[in-house]
């Protein structure tokens, strides 16, 4: 069994689980041993307490072309240093300062959707959520340099990133161009030109390691590319599925509208507190992430022996862990294919045994989790009360499971103003 990461991988893994259970060992064609692990406790252990015994695994070579040795791809000391330098940029206070950008990006969508509604045209919600999330991350990184340096290029030069064909030659050229563009923005900032507003780039430029050393230009480029790529497709895909799920579940839509009316009656009521109070919206987002975790498969490669409870993992073994499969395993989740945001309602019962890790777990857990929940809540809280979206095609979208999980075809909706 080849076990790359492509459209056949999910079917192969599901077959293995059905035939052999929660711990499957496979010898790959290159002779390397691999484990596919679908036991919640072992998965948690590998990602948390035992994480230092593993590096990133198969599939990351492809990502490296785009992200160099940025945070998602790097391992060991390089990763540790970068993570320490970058983590403070993601503290809640900093993320709150970016809420006004989230609102601005919703306003831009609202203008476009109102036009579509007035003209009776359909809305490609897949490209709309993608544009929303891309614009948001770019303005969060570059503030006004986004308009003055990036959008002056005509078509957004980052837009191609949502199309996954990282090995194609034209992509190599486009990536090179992006890196040149980023380098010239960095040069300007270092020379005291360009935006002086608060943004991720200013925080990354100020970050220093334990020796007081800042990022070099090459490191900064890798980290900026990582931030942009990590920060937009995941949220965009989640919002795409959320709009689809809402359109299929009017009872959920009604409750979301109540949540928004109560906590976000108008944009001036928006604050970190009002967003935190949107409990039902949070549940809908979590349930969407359970069914459609954008990073549907994690891979790791052991670099030293790991003695787990039930078996040993020899050095140089590949490990496959799938939130997509665990999130839909009946043993942990009753009626797992059903969309039911009430699963995430606050309860006194411990939830620890239910595997839910769309943002991973442990020290390598996503840095943008809080940012993405705020972004998605602002998006839904401001746009859903204004627009009703009806599916143009009721058929269930097919899944494309490559590095990220997405819908094979764009989803179209008919917008009407409420
Ligand atoms: C729904 C939205 C998101 C999901 C589901 C998600 C999921 C993940 C996952 C699963 C990982 C770990 C991957 C692995 O270990 O193999 C990760 C890492 C990361 N994410 Fe996110 N992410 C989301 C949004 C964001 C956003 C908005 C940002 C930035 C603004 C971001 C920045 C990062 C970074 C920097 C890492 C690397 C962390 C490290 O290795 O230390 N993510 N994300």
Strand-helix topology:
Elements: H1 9-20, E1 23-27, E2 33-37, H2 40-47, E3 54-56, H3 60-67, H4 76-86, H5 92-97, H6 99-119, E4 123-124, H7 125-142, H8 145-150, H9 169-190, H10 200-206, H11 217-248, H12 250-263, H13 272-276, H14 279-291, E5 298-302, E6 306-307, E7 312-313, E8 318-321, H15 323-327, H16 369-383, E9 387-391, E10 399-401, E11 405-407, E12 412-417
Parallel strand pairs: 2-8
Antiparallel strand pairs: 1-2, 3-5, 4-12, 5-8, 6-7, 9-12, 10-11
Helix pairs in contact: 6-7, 6-16, 7-11, 9-11, 11-14, 12-14
The chain binds protoporphyrin IX containing FE.
Give a short summary of the structure:
By secondary structure, the chain is α+β, with helices and mostly antiparallel strands. It is 49% helix and 11% strand.
Can you offer a commentary on this structure?
This protein is α+β, with helices and mostly antiparallel strands and 418 residues long. The chain has one domain (9-417): Cytochrome P450 (Cytochrome p450), CATH 1.10.630. It has 16 helices and twelve strands. The strands form four sheets. It has a five-stranded mixed sheet. Strands 4-12-9 form a three-stranded antiparallel sheet. Helix 7 (125-142) runs antiparallel to helix 11 (217-248), helix 9 crosses helix 11 (217-248) and helix 11 (217-248) packs across helix 14 (279-291). The longest helix is centred in the middle third of the chain and has 32 residues, at 217-248. The termini are far apart. It binds protoporphyrin IX containing FE. Protoporphyrin IX containing FE is lined by residues 71-72, 83, 226-227, 230-231, 234-235, 238, 294-295, 298, 358-360, 364, 366-368, 371-372. Residues 71-72, 83, 226-227, 230-231, 234-235, 238, 294-295, 298, 358-360, 364, 366-368, 371-372 line the site of protoporphyrin IX containing FE (HEM).
